[in-house]
Amino acid sequence: MALRPDVPHSPPSLVGGLDSVVDASLAEGLAALESYKKKDTVKVVVRFKAVGNAPIMKQNFFRVTVSNRFQAVIQFLRKELGWKAGEPLFTYINLAFSPAPDDTISNLYRKSFATDGHLIVNYSTTAAWG
Amino acid sequence: MSTFGGIRHSPSTFTSSPASTTLFRRLVWEGTVPLEIRVDSKELPANSNRGLECYFLQAPRVSYLPLLISEIKRFLQDVVFDDEAARTMKEEDWWFESEEGHLLKWHWPIGLIYDNHTTLATSRPGASASSRPQAVPLRLTLHLASPPTDRLLLAPSAEACKQAFMGQLKEADFLRWGNTKRMTGLRKAEQDGMWEGIKEHNFDDYWRVASKVTPTTLPARPGSPPAAQSSSMHTRPPSADPQGTPDKDSAYSVRSVPIRLYLPEGPVLQDLAPPVLEDGGWSLPSIISAQSRDPRISLLLMHLLTTASCYYKGTPNTLADLLSLHLPLLFPAPGPGASPTLAYALLQGVVTPAEAELAWLGALPSINQDVWIHPTVLRAVDMVTSLRVTVALMAGMQ
């Protein structure tokens, strides 16, 4: 997913020797990093699929901004299911792996090899793929 | 360490790997970072030995904070707390914070936490561009109560950490092959054995099982001449036979290399990273082009790339390709009139040549390969010093 930059590009000044060139480059690098911090506003559809005895949701797909962490999806799912924090809830991508909660939807979407704008999230009351 | 007179291709045999790959895996495994752990003085129980509540240790990069807790607990019991406090301490309420007040995550490897800290330290405006990250202890504050559970994301138990680790193994498996058969094909005792290897920090125990699920860096063609010994500097001539089928367990056959890019204050970027670029035709090993570079750097490059020199269809995807694709502002694509590179990549605390092949880098660990981006121009002298250290380490290991 290309990150669109709007950093003005100016070459580092050569006056003042190597250190000032290096400092100017550092400033330019930091500016680039700032632009990469901008949150992606693209959305994908997260489709929740129940596994085993887990209840099926009436509405099981939702649009989510990709910069969200997976933790937000887990919390949203708990709310939709009406389950409290202590109750066991296991989530998987593509029935394959359980993602780290601080991974972003953006990364998970790409890692799931999805091409249709849908990220499949399976949910279960037990650890299905231990 | 296995020898490889011949290349075996029985379905479950990952165990043969070039000696240099095993060497680098061992180097990564044995990497440590200095930690200075200090109990929050406001939380020290009454009658504690104040002034002694600081614990120093050299922790493995490939370990996790929950695995340090029993050691820290013993220290506090023996040296700092009185009997009452020692009896009533509840390590399930413990949590760590960095010096700057950042909450430290239980499921991040200690090396990742450390590199996060050094990257942030060298990325501030005003940070001297000429200072390489020194090996200063990472100062952590240990809190004994009121863990911010909503932000910690995981319980501090070793069991929760193990589950997270297993999850990362399966994720990497899925990325590489499109399924998790290699992980789920392990017996439970073997899966547990991997975690035991991490807990006990035992390389052989860990890799005895990990080699079954981690790709090899063997040449992609069965029957081709064995990869050069790690001490050899000679290139291996490419075979003239284009009929060979790729080794299905090879790092060069994966669907995607599990590699993550960490920017100093975020985000963490991960996208599909094919091991080989589909640009048609056959290509010579990239080591040929490495010979024209700065001779100080080609020494390490030749070592790194010798074992990766296989005969591919298409060119191997490199770290440089990945970085200029995803971070073009920092790593502009090379060419006439190209802007200068504004950052460098740090992997396991070591400056990594941009020419390194992703497939090879991705075969070093079993889980995701984490790469930190430092926004500073690395001066030639720093680069050479860093490489000299790495080469010396390698020479010492042989």
UniProtKB/TrEMBL annotation, chain A:
- Report the subcellular localization: Preautophagosomal structure membrane
What species does this protein belong to? Answer: Lactarius akahatsu
Membrane spanning segments where? none
Q: What is known about its subunit structure?
A: Forms a conjugate with ATG5.
Q: Which SUPFAM superfamilies did the record assign? A: Ubiquitin-like (SSF54236)
Q: Name one GO cellular component term.
A: autophagosome membrane
Instruction: List UniProt keywords, sorted A-Z.
Output: Autophagy, Isopeptide bond, Membrane, Protein transport, Transport, Ubl conjugation pathway
Protein name as annotated: Ubiquitin-like protein ATG12
> GO biological process annotations for this chain's record?
autophagosome assembly; autophagosome maturation; autophagy of mitochondrion; glycophagy; piecemeal microautophagy of the nucleus; protein transport
Record's keyword annotation contains Cell cycle: no
Membrane topology label: Peripheral membrane protein
* An MF annotation (GO) of this entry: Atg8-family ligase activity
TrEMBL record, chain B:
Where does the Autophagy protein ATG5 UblB domain start and stop, copy by copy? 313-374
Give the GO biological process terms.
autophagy of mitochondrion; cellular response to nitrogen starvation; piecemeal microautophagy of the nucleus
Q: Which Pfam families match?
A: ATG5_HBR, ATG5_UblA, ATG5_UblB
What keywords are assigned to this protein? Autophagy, Isopeptide bond, Membrane, Transport, Ubl conjugation
Q: Does this entry carry the keyword Transferase?
A: no
Recorded hits in InterPro entries, A to Z, give:
Atg5, ATG5_HBR, Atg5_HR, ATG5_UblA, Atg5_UblA_dom_sf, ATG5_UblB
The main location is membrane
Any idea where the Autophagy protein ATG5 alpha-helical bundle region domain is? 159-215
Please list where the region (Disordered) is annotated. Answer: 215-250
Q: Where is the Autophagy protein ATG5 UblA domain?
A: 28-143
Subcellular localization is given as: Preautophagosomal structure membrane
Q: Which GO terms describe its cellular component?
A: Atg12-Atg5-Atg16 complex; autophagosome; mitochondria-associated endoplasmic reticulum membrane contact site; phagophore; phagophore assembly site membrane
Give the membrane topology, semicolon-separated if more than one. Answer: Peripheral membrane protein
GO MF terms listed in the record are:
Atg8-family ligase activity
The entry sums up its family as follows:
Belongs to the ATG5 family.
Q: What task does this protein carry out?
A: Involved in cytoplasm to vacuole transport (Cvt) and autophagic vesicle formation.
Q: How does it assemble?
A: Conjugated with ATG12.
Q: What is this protein called?
A: Autophagy protein 5
Q: Which organism is it from?
A: Lactarius akahatsu
Task: Identify the taxonomic lineage of the organism of origin.
Answer: Eukaryota, Fungi, Dikarya, Basidiomycota, Agaricomycotina
